[in-house]
Amino acid sequence: MRGVTVTRKPGDPELLSVTVFPLARAFRPALWREAVTELDRAAAGLAARVKGQLEASATVTVAGARARSYDLAFERSGEKLGERIVFVLRGRREYQLLCRWHAPPDADVTAACATLSSSFRPGR
Predict the structure, then answer these.
(1) Quick one: pLDDT band at residue 124, thresholds 50, 70, 90?
(2) pTM of the model
(3) What distance in Å separates the CA atoms of residue 48 and residue 28, rounded to the nearest whole number?
(4) What are phi and psi of 119, to 5 degrees?
(5) From the centroid of its chain, how far is CA 58?
(6) Of 45 and 7, which is predicted with more confidence?
(7) N or C terminus of the chain with fewer C-beta within 10 Å?
(8) CA-CA distances (angstroms) from residue 94 to 2, 60, 83, 99?
(9) 101-116: b (≥16 Cβ within 10 Å) or e
(10) Which of 45-54, 82-91, 103-112 has the lowest mean pLDDT?
């Protein structure tokens, strides 16, 4: 696993991050339907682990190909937070684009989340 995280200040729950995970088998676009089923299950499990709710899921386009996006809402240390996780599958890599904000999100956070997905380019 490799990744990078950006926050406004240390300890702030608001953040942007990209994490790269190896896949056991290479992803091919023909496997999309099966991948969506597995990603939906993983997102529901994540929402349950943080005692939150899965508020939205969608297939989106990132770096010219289909990706899967999930919005979660949860509380941590009494703070209401929102989180968008976008899963980008390329070859033998899974990229997780994460954007977390204090709920409700302000315009800066919304713009930062959109920029993360629109500017992302997977490594080689």
Answers:
(1) low
(2) 0.92
(3) 29
(4) -100, -10
(5) 12
(6) 45
(7) C
(8) 11, 15, 18, 16
(9) beeebeeebeebbeeb
(10) 103-112
